[in-house]
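Box S2. Input/output pair 1.
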Amino acid sequence: MSPKKDSYDCVVLGAGPAGCAAAALVAKEGFSTLLVEREQLPREHVGESLMPESYWTFEKLGVLPKLEASRYAKKVGVQFVDASGRESKPFFFRSHFDHPSSETWHVERADFDQMLFDNATEKGAECVQRTRVLEVLFDGDRATGVRLKAADGERTVSSRVVVDATGQSSLIANRLGLKQMNPDLKKAGIWRHYRGGERDESGGGVKTIISHTRDQKCWFWYIPQFNDIVSVGCVGDSDYLLKGRGTPAEVFDQELSNCPGVTEYLTGAEAMDDLAVAKEFSYTTKQAAGPGWTLVGDAWGFIDPVYSSGVYFAMKSADMASECVVDALRADDCSAERLGAWAPTFAEGTKWVRKLVNAFYSGSFRVGKFVQEHPQHAGPLTDLLVGKMFSPEMPALFADLDPWLERAKAMDAMDDDEPVAAMA
């Protein structure tokens, strides 16, 4: 379906969580907003585990009542399993901060994205599907609109601001050469869903489980969802997973057999026919905004799935960027400085999650031992797992964690007989 008008205050490209959030938040402030989606919703997508701090953006969007009444599995914590199958003590978020924002959900993305898309419509955005973005239009370095193609033909739409929420397609970043792959996190993921996997609800809900394989070349996520469905994914170096070892399904099964922390949960479970693959997904962009445009969500960057930060980062970046878009439109100043004012604060916060991801892949991070030696950091570490990446306690946490990791690496190198129990 083609847009109804030729000109808008804001055009948002992509109707994932970031795009839907940005469109809703700009539209509800009274600005004409067009949300463009290439596919037809609902669309299939791997099940997601949310970070609890998403609560505040959900509240701002007005969708908390829908989430609270939904069928989604309630996420109450996270648990890590080492290479031998030994489980860490669960991190139950509410025991750290007793507030509704300390618990969240494991969502089915097809249904979740549809809810956010409908909410953008309810907030006043014009939302079109099955409409391709052929080109983002520029006048010099300023974005001025988009050229679209729908079933009824091509259409050029002008806009004061273009918000790129096209995910890893990153239309503007790729056009302007802004995308930078992270050479230290060239990972790949293979995942599928199962029916009938074990569900531990001892904490009042389900947990995300992160489990290493025996040789620690890969790790698995285990995310119980509603309707007796579990999302199970394997992540490892891209070359190791996807080159010369057979089909993705064969590699997935090989790695699963090497992961005692997950195989026992899947005893008697039925694998569903929905295997999917993604590779080399960790990247950043050189800049988050320019004259007349800004990037949000995965179009801005993506770190790694290990701490379930993807949807939270997408929605938080859209939340912060939308405030700048509204400010720029009100001031009639859609400069790079005004549209990108959110980015330094956001980048500073995501830096700490990136550092925690690097700690995870170091092979030497043992949460239990670190917290035992530095009990003052148990709270800040849980804060980071919850998504409180803007906490003023983060610098002090890493001032101790970074040298601790260096000592742990040195000890591991000296004692080859001691198994590395990452995150145990």
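Box S3. Input/output pair 2.
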Amino acid sequence: MFDWENIRHFLAVARIGTLSGAARKLKVDHATVSRRLSALEDEVKTRLVERLPRACKLTPAGQRVFELAQGMEENAYAIERFLDASLSPLSGKVTLSAPPVLVASFLVKHLRAFRLAHPSVQLSVSGDARQVSLSRREADIALRLVRPDEATSVIRKLGRMPFDLYASRDYAHLHNPSAWEFIVYDAGFSEMPQQKWLMSVANGRPIACEISDITGHLAATQAGAGVAGLPRFLAQTSANLQRLPHDGESFSRDIWMAVHRDLRRSPHVRAVMDFLLKIVAENPDFMTGG
């Protein structure tokens, strides 16, 4: 029998294409990935990966092993999900992935309340903008601003996150909309819905600066750098920001919750899901209808 840990490390190398990238993904060092890969090749007595100077390339045998190993991986994770779902009520660890802005400015404020309500459930929260795989146990529950499409997931819309225009109360052009200068995202985010909305509202008015993350937008707005489109719940935490009326359309992002179908009835996972539903519904800066 093959060592599953060796196969798990091989799968990471095959997907990412570098030893260093696989090491970061698995949260181990470069040497561990290299050692595990060599151990698997010794077990199968076949070269699976060509180690090039800047990348790793699968050999024909490696490609076939990769295809077969993905089935082994899914079965291994299915066993984990089955065992997790069989745990005693309200005990265990639950991994939650959510957009960084929801983690840093919303979820962390409720962790104490969750801990008091469920002391036997350990909640591990990851602020992650990318789409995680629930099938590969990259998370147990995922919150996303785009409707998840993983076939094995059960999804539910929690509500909507409204955006508005904001500026610092001492912004030089606060009361002169024609002179507003906008804080927007950089070109890498040109297809993001809030960037499209913001550019339509700007409608040719000057761009003050481009910042790649929403927390940077908040800080720049607080500093008086210009006008930004911010989630209402985020802007409301800052007393020196003022919401600005505008002629453009209103805008919001849907908040979706996804869980693997094998875990949706697990008591400790269910406790986290119910808690997320509750705190979103109770926040007046989110919309839960429609």
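Caption for Box S3: Residues 6 and 39 are 7 Å apart (CA to CA). Residues 92-159+253-282 form a domain with the D-Maltodextrin-Binding Protein; domain 2 fold (CATH 3.40.190.10).
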